[in-house]
Write a structure and sequence with these properties.
302 residues; alpha/beta; Rossmann fold; six-stranded mixed sheet; four-stranded parallel sheet; 37% helix; ACCD_DCysDesulf; TrpB-like_PALP
């Protein structure tokens, strides 16, 4: 685990508002950001239960799949990924995420999108046990009680100076941990990467306080969707601050926060902390798609 630090963002905002970003993306070279936090206690639990295999779920460019594969290899635990989309079976070499996971020892089971929706059904899981034997189950996106426990360690004493803490939201585990460990005077703002209001119910399963809100205006059309405006924003942010942002989660959240500042959403003198949840491994795959669409690619280095 590498030390995490808060990096000040050198933009002159109106109303004396200040912005910093917690560089959780630097916590580990391959298991970065919230994936490190979510897996920490799940890996300890798997070892305590003497499980030799982790089984989890994800899509073609899943940060979670990549992180579980590497963490399993690092900890000496076998990994199995149930991948959404049976058409990906013969496209592993074309997919940077799946190729990385396979190179780190993960075995794949490709299932149709229809079957994938059954991933929480008892009969579906029993069939997987019949096929693969005993395993420790990590949910899609990694969110469970142990994941939330790990995410409760993101904020530290030095973060008490911030009035707002902002993060992207996928399955709700990261924001739940932030909600639970925030101080009474702090407001947690979540920026969903998916369309729909179902996330509030998911978060309420784990969140113990009411100090939060979801802002659903910055998903750019839905999960995995990007446009030229977002790409240009992410590249400009990198040029100015030397902080790479992923286009699925953190990039959209940072765009949203800066847009809200321009619209006077935050009171004067607000101190805002952005949580960088990692996910940079997905940029290579996104750039393949962007080239196909004749759009600019995302920059991750000078």
């Amino acid at each position: 685990m590498n030390p995490v630090f808060n990096q000040h963002i050198n933009i002159n905002f109106p109303n004396a508002i200040s912005l910093a970003i917690k560089r959780e993306d630097l916590i580990h070279p391959f298991v970065s950001g919230n994936k490190f936090r979510k897996l920490k206690y799940n890996l300890l639990q798997a070892k305590a239960e003497k499980k030799e295999t982790l089984l989890t779920f994800g899509g073609a460019f899943s940060n979670h799949i990549a992180a579980v594969a590497f963490a399993g290899k690092e900890q000496g635990i076998k990994t199995i990924g149930i991948i959404r989309g049976d058409e990906l079976f013969d496209k592993i070499e074309e997919n940077p995420t799946l190729k990385f996971a396979q190179e780190n020892g993960m075995k794949f089971e490709f299932v149709s999108r229809e079957d994938y929706r059954l991933k929480s059904e008892t009969s579906f899981l029993e069939n997987l046990k019949d096929k693969f034997g005993d395993f420790y189950l990590v949910p899609e996106g990694g969110t469970n009680e142990l994941a939330v426990k790990g995410c409760e360690e993101i904020l530290t004493d030095e973060d008490s100076v911030f009035d707002y803490v902002c993060c992207a939201v996928g399955t709700g585990g990261t924001i739940s941990g932030l909600i639970n460990c925030a101080l009474p005077n702090q407001k947690i703002l979540g920026f969903p990467a998916l369309k729909g209001d179902f996330l509030k119910d998911e978060i309420r399963i784990f969140a113990k306080k009411d100090n939060w809100n979801l802002i659903s205006d910055y998903h750019f059309g839905g999960y995995g969707k990007v446009n030229l405006e977002l790409i240009e924003f992410i590249n400009a942010f990198f040029e100015e601050n030397k902080v790479p942002l992923d286009p699925i989660y953190t990039g959209k959240m940072v765009f949203g926060v800066i847009d809200l500042i321009s619209k006077n959403y935050f009171p004067a003198h607000s101190k805002i902390l952005l949580i960088h949840t990692g996910g940079l491994q997905g940029i290579e795959g996104m750039n393949i798609k962007l080239k196909q669409k004749k759009l600019p690619i995302l920059k991750t280095n000078d």
